[in-house]
Amino acid sequence: MESATPSMSLAHFCRFLVLSTLLSVMLALPARAQTILRDPDIEHALKELAAPVLRAAGLGTAGIKILVIDDGSLNAFVIDRNHIFLHSGLIQKMETPEMLQSVIAHEAAHITNGHLTRRPINLRNARTAAGIGSALAAMAAIAAGGGAEAAGAVALGAQNTAQRLFFVHTRAEENAADQSGLRYLAEAGIDTTGALRVLEIFRGQEVLSAARQDPYARTHPLSQDRYRTVQRLSQAYAGRATAENKAARYWFMRAKGKLSAFQRAPKWTLNRAGESGYADIKAMREAVAWHRRSNLNRALSLIDKALASNPNDPFYYELKGQILMESRQFGAAVNAYGRAAQLAPKNALIKGSYGRALLAQGQTKQALKLLEAARASDGNDPRLLRDLATAHAQLGNRGMASVVTAERYALVNRLKDAEIHARRASDILPQGSAGWRRAQDIISAAKRANRRK
Asked: Does residue 167 carry a pLDDT above 60?
């Protein structure tokens, strides 16, 4: 008998579809392969930075994720009310936490001002991967910086006019978002000059050819009038008391430090590891660099150094688990991930990594529980779905292994393979069960995609 799994809520399923469509399109673009970077430490740091801004915007902090796109260009965008996307290149370009917070405030303003609801493509009837895919895939390609030409390359049949309009904000929208964003910063006690410094980066972009512009300049038009408006508003708010937020600076430097440690050459990182001014961040960055140089002993000694000053930090334990796991020290990795999960029991990414380590060690039943729990709260990681399918297969749950494999293929835009596994799951699982219904959604998506070809 196949094990039963709870069905996802409609809201969670729609969020899953939004992210899966976005990720699949990025992976499909031949000229610039992109993906969403999932790291619990970086996402936590961005959440800490965003929290005061989102509260000032009236959005709360629980329902919005700040996610990172692996792209060296400068851009930020929103695709729904639940996610703000930042390019890794934009994060690295920001010099202060206030600059990054101003970008988040601006994107939050696009949500609160209703700019998403006025887009030309109607999403109200999207209920499955097929329904939401045709509307969002082209938009996601534009948001990632590929423009309408890149969106057309994935052959999803959307009208070019709609593609061009969806993410290109009007100047009226930009002005409104600027005004709201600066108000959120001021109400949160954040120095509004950060917003002006961000705009200064993009000054002069509009005179460049489209191919040379940063994606942010193409989707967020900047004029001299807009710049002067932000300058005036920033000066008007200058009288408000704004004290340096030491916690914001710490999390800003930690996010930038870890991101660059994994993206830049180890030699570059080792030469600049101490630039943050925090000893634990320096040790963390050096640990990553030595791990990437396959020096396990030095990497472990350095992450232990970071833990010595932060003994209850789940994210340093998670990084230690990653270092051990990738060095095939599975037993020690289980211990490190286990401690991380104790310290952050609700973090889905940590749960997924812990389950992966248990699976590698042969503790399949315990791994399955953790992987299912991780997937229930955040199922937008192909690696997690691969591990979950493996655990089901090892326990003889062939139907669930097939449906999870189908979902993984759908997530990376391999709908033909997804349909094969979904049909296999449909033949095995009880008709009407949660897994069977998930398989039907994928089969329907594949059929509609074929009709569009």
From this structure: no
Q: What percent of the chain has pLDDT over 90?
A: 51
Structure tokens at 285: 């960055």
Q: What's the count of helices (H) and strands (E) in the chain, helices before strands?
A: 23, 4
Cα–Cα separations (whole angstroms), residue 266 to 39, 141, 263, 379? 19, 31, 9, 31
Q: Which residue from 147, 146, 54, 171 is spatially nearest to 103, judged by alpha carbons? A: 54
- Rounded to 10 deg, the angle between the 193-202 and 224-237 helix axes is 160
- 324-329: long-range contacts (C-beta < 8 A, 24 or more apart)? 324/300, 325/353, 325/356, 325/357, 325/360, 326/291, 327/291, 327/294, 327/296, 329/296
Residue with tokens 């970008």, as numbered in its chain: 103
Look up residue 49 and give its amino acid. Answer: L
User: Regarding predicted confidence, which is higher, 198 or 341?
Assistant: 341
Estimate to the nearest angstrom the gap between the alpha carbon of 20 and the chain centroid: 11
Model-level pTM?
A: 0.81
DSSP letter string, 422-440: HHHHHHHSPTTSHHHHHHH
Q: Is 70 exceeded by the pLDDT of residue 439?
A: yes
CB 299 within 8 A of CB 284: no
- pLDDT, position 229: 82
pLDDT tens-digit map of 54-79: 999 998 877 888 989 888 888 888 87
Residue carrying structure tokens 């809201």: 11
How far is residue 315's CA from residue 350's CA, in Å, rounded to a whole number? 8
H, E, C per residue of 174-220: HHHHHHHHHHHHHHCCCCCHHHHHHHHHHCCHHHCCCCCCCHHHHHC
